[in-house]
Amino acid sequence: xxxxxxxxxxxxxxxxxxxxxGGHEINFLNVRLSAQSAKLAENTxxxxxxxxxKADADAIAIxxxxxxxxxxxxxxxxNHVDLKACQMAGIKVARVPEYSxxxxxxxxxxxxxxxxxxxPRAYNRxxxxxxxxxxxxxxxxxxxxxxxxxxxRIGTQVARLLSAFGCQxxxxxxxxxxxxxxxxxxxxxxxxxxxxDILTIHAPLNETTHHxxxxxxIAQMKSGIMLINTSRGAILDTKEIIKALxxxxxxxxxxxxxxxxxxxxxxxxxxxxIQDDLISRLLTFPNVLITSHQAFLTKxxxxxxxxxxxxxxxxxxxxxxxSNQL
Length: 326
Fold this sequence. Notes:
By secondary structure, the protein is an alpha/beta fold. Helices cover 33% and strands 15% of the residues.
């Protein structure tokens, strides 16, 4: 089958090529899917898209006219896809609900440790032959209270890792995970916000969680809290986050996602003047650490994403049950 692959990155290709045992003909494109680029899917039957592709109603209509019958998401989230439009067009959609919760969970812990022990600052200082320890004081994770919003696959692993560090772990989730009974105490949101020294977010983006961290919820937090987000950028109200950083209400901020990341992440803008004032302001704070949506980026995760996408396609083409179909 002919497959068009939107928003291709060099780090992905080897994994797709190694997993393509079915001999599918894959056309790798650098451009992201949109209503303007959808025409590039001509003469193909399936399209593969990522989190920054825009599969809205207009793009889906064009894909349908071109003969696309299958839309494969190489992500767990699907808020960038108009599922109703896909259904009306007869396009089957499948995602990768789990590729490596360990990858994202471990990156979350890496952000916590790097912020706490000021690793970026220490690294740059030593590179300049400055071996002073002034300004590098951190704190023990052991004995601290860590709050986890969302205890799905990723949040569960984060909770276990934090518990292993000796943290008291509090959690909020509509569905309690009984596997965490020994390491997590489920509380209401207000209790979690007011008691946590560290708060890490692992929830999907939807109407309920959009700007979940806002002026009101920030006001309920401890002063100097460490806030980590490796889920979806729009769960945080960035303007309110900046205000809280300026007053030291938020003492540490670690982000792998950003509310307006579509125009920035995964591309080299080092020779440009960034027009996004919010991320430019965030980058001025010494207690902010931002990575560009790389938490998933491990060999194991990339291999699983490619294998699952192709398995999804084979199942849907063969009219076999596909548990990942949306």
